[in-house]
Specification:
The chain has a single domain, classed as Multidrug-efflux Transporter Regulator, Chain: A, Domain 2. By secondary structure, it is mainly alpha-helical. The longest helix is centred in the C-terminal third of the chain and has 27 residues. The chain is built from three helices and two strands, in the order H-E-E-H-H. Helices cover about 60% and strands about 5% of the residues. It is flat, with a radius of gyration of 17 Å. Strands 1-2 form a two-stranded antiparallel ribbon. A hairpin with a 5-residue loop joins strand 1 and strand 2.
Length: about 90
Amino acid sequence: MGQQNLRLYERKGLLQPQRTEKGTRRYSEADLTRLRRISELLGLGLNLSGIRLVLLLEADNQALRHELSGRRLASGSGQQRRTPLPGA
C-alpha cells in the first residue's frame, strides 16, 4: 500500500494513526487490521465513500453486540442467542 493511499485514507477519515512528536505516523495492529479491511473492500469494488459507510456500520454493529452482551450478563441470562436473519 503506497504512502499516497495512506494519506488519502487519513484525509477521508478511514484511518487515524497515532503520530510521533515529529509527525511520523505510527500504525497500530488495529490500524493494520483496518487497512486490510479497506483493501478487501476496495477489491470488492467499493469506493472510499462506500468503504467509510461499511466501516461505520461494522463499528456500530460491534458496539451494539457488546451492549447487548452486557445487558444479558446484567440480567442473569448468560445465553448468547442469535436471531437468524430473514432469508438465511
